[in-house]
Design goal:
Layout: H1 16-25, E1 31-34, E2 36-37, E3 40-41, H2 43-52, E4 56-60, E5 76-78, H3 83-95
Parallel strand pairs: 1-4, 4-5
Antiparallel strand pairs: 2-3
């Protein structure tokens, strides 16, 4: 879907450890985070992105009420979602994105 919308994917990861590494040092403008990665929640990665000031959205099958309080109100793509919804969420994220230097 991202390629169809004309976006480049900076990284696609399969573990929380990989996600933490990319969140802490990667060069990108915004992130899309699946809430559940191989049975682990992504919220520690969201904390890293928030500390860097990078915008992100969650992809989830859960309700926002299951998110930690500090992450409620973040954009979320409710599974299943379509390309138009993804396009709208990304446009919102990138409208506020300020490229942050890697720490």
């Amino acid at each position: 879907m991202l390629a169809d919308l004309g976006y480049d994917v900076a990284a696609a990861v399969g573990t929380i450890a990989e996600a933490r590494e990319h969140a802490a040092s990667g060069e990108f403008h915004a992130a899309i985070l699946d809430v559940n990665v191989d049975g682990q929640e992504i919220f520690p990665v969201a904390d890293i992105l928030a500390a860097r000031g990078l915008p992100f959205a969650f992809v989830t099958g859960y309700s926002e009420g299951s998110f930690p309080e500090k992450h409620r109100g973040r954009p979320a793509l409710q599974k299943p979602f379509n390309t138009d919804r993804l396009k709208d969420v990304l446009a919102g994220l990138l409208a506020t994105a300020q490229p942050a230097p890697a720490p």
